UniProtKB/TrEMBL annotation:
Adenosylcob(III)alamin binds at P197, Q249, S299, M405. The gene is eutB. This is Ethanolamine ammonia-lyase large subunit. It comes from Candidatus Phaeomarinibacter ectocarpi. Binds between the large and small subunits. GO terms for biological process: amino acid metabolic process; ethanolamine catabolic process. Its EC number is 4.3.1.7. Pfam families: EutB.
């Protein structure tokens, strides 16, 4: 299959692009990772020319022209073989620019977007995102609804979940338990209680799973647990009879990048089937929890010359295949080599959320940065608010917003209170009912624990004192 050349003229200068891979890269908003990879536009004029040329590309071109070889890459095969032509039919005749207009129009309702999602390839949604302003990404993502369930239901209209992230640098059980109970008192934890273990071993995973399960069952909390060990560790833990709710794995958008994580698609399929067979969910059986992040494929030298945002969107096709409970882009975690400053992190977070939701993936965002990036908490406040408006499925709840185990800055329990309050958002319905029954949330939806008599909040605090 020959290489298609794309071109556009601006002010008498002809800009030419060698195939879809080059065109997509040059049309991307400026970011440090694409500069590092040598694929970024060399000027704003070249970037504008690429956007004009990209707008005229038919969506169907992505069906015929693959960015990574079908024969050599199992993610490409997953994308191509999983494409639903019938679902694609309503937008088949559109160009990338026409698709943008259609998405922003009244015809693209929540129901329509849900029905079209199986017909969209990740390269299509990455392409259209490059033609969109931030407000466009927000407006379309807000219309997308992806509902999932385990013990709580995620993705409902007017809902924002929080992953309670009680990490500890030595996996100290008292420190973790205290953080869990602290987060619950702030109304956090409906998305999941998820621990990044300091040691990736079966014994450590089993011990932490029992810790979470003890708290969950003691207070009958409608949430789910996850210890973010490697998928192979989770498989061993399940064989031992450990109380595994959700299975975690970092994923990426190419076979080579996934191999750098030590995983294959077959491993993910086995873990998904094994976890579902346990039957631990009560309102659904979505059992996978995936994390992604722009720059992961490039850092593994496994990006195949594709810009980092497009290869990130391909990771969402991997997630979609396994019907996860949640998928999370850890947007600023990988560092300034890939997203240099607050502006780039904000844009990437909105892109990732938009692309995942449009593909039918339940998307959350870890609104975060590392301390050597040109970003601060004010940047994160802005992104957090924008994502709340965009209908983000969930965010992180980290004690004090400072993860002392992973050494990065995220969002705190009180940040979740802020964004729920100013935007009128609620926790998952099952968790909201539990908060009210425990007198942690009042009848107006405010987190105001009633520390009197034998209230549930008082009992939680009593347990926390024991943990300390």
């Amino acid at each position: 299959m020959g290489l298609t050349l794309y071109r556009h003229v601006i002010g008498g200068t002809v800009y030419q692009f060698d195939g879809l891979r080059d065109l997509l890269a040059k049309a991307s908003p400026h970011r440090s990772g694409d500069v590092l990879a040598g694929v970024a536009a060399r000027s704003e004029a070249e970037r504008a020319a690429a956007c004009y040329a990209l707008a005229d590309v038919p969506l169907s071109a992505f069906i015929d022209h693959h960015l990574v070889s079908y024969e050599d890459d199992d993610v490409t095969r997953l994308i191509v073989d999983g494409h639903d032509p019938a679902a694609f039919e309503p937008v088949r005749s559109l160009t990338v620019g026409g698709f943008r207009d259609w998405l922003l129009g009244d015809e693209a309702t929540a129901a329509t977007l849900s029905s079209v999602a199986p017909g969209l390839m990740p390269e299509m949604v990455a392409a259209v995102s490059k033609l969109m302003r931030n407000q466009d990404l927000i407006a379309v993502a807000r219309k997308c609804r992806v509902l999932t369930g385990f013990r709580s239901t995620m993705g409902g209209t007017g809902r924002l979940g929080v992953r309670l992230q009680p990490n500890h640098p030595t996996d100290n059980p008292k420190g973790i338990a205290a953080s869990i109970l602290d987060g619950l008192m702030y109304g956090c934890g409906d998305a999941l209680i998820g621990i990044n273990p300091a040691t990736d071993s079966v014994d450590a995973m089993v011990r932490l799973l029992h810790l979470i399960d003890d708290v969950r069952t003691r207070f009958d909390i409608p949430t789910q647990s996850c210890v973010l060990s490697h998928v192979t560790t989770a498989l061993e833990a399940m064989k031992m009879g450990a109380p595994v709710d959700l299975v975690f794995q970092s994923i990426a958008g190419t076979q080579a990048a996934n191999e750098s994580f030590g995983i294959t698609l077959d491993m993910l399929a086995e873990a998904n089937a094994t976890a579902r067979s346990l039957g631990r969910g009560t309102v659904g059986d979505n059992v996978m929890y995936f994390e992604t992040g722009q720059g992961a494929a490039l850092s593994a030298d496994a990006h195949h010359g594709i810009d980092q945002q497009t290869v990130e969107a391909r990771a969402y096709a991997v997630a979609r295949k396994f019907e996860p409970f949640l998928t999370n882009t850890v947007v600023g975690f990988i560092g300034p080599e890939y997203l240099y400053d607050g502006k780039q992190i904000v844009r990437a977070g909105l892109e990732d959320h938009f692309c995942g939701k449009l593909l039918g993936v339940p998307m959350g965002v870890d609104v975060c940065y590392t301390n050597h990036a040109e970003a601060d908490q004010n940047d994160m406040d802005g992104l957090l608010t924008l994502l709340g408006v965009a209908g983000c499925t969930f965010i992180m709840g980290v004690p004090g917003a400072d993860d002392i185990m992973l050494s990065y800055q995220s969002t705190s329990f009180h940040d979740a209170l802020y964004v729920r309050d100013v935007l009128g958002l609620k926790p998952a319905p099952e968790f909201e009912a539990w908060l009210k029954s425990m007198e942690i949330m009042d009848g107006q939806g405010r987190v105001r624990p009633q520390l009197t008599g034998q209230s549930g909040a008082t009992k939680l605090l009593g347990f926390e004192e024991q943990a300390r």
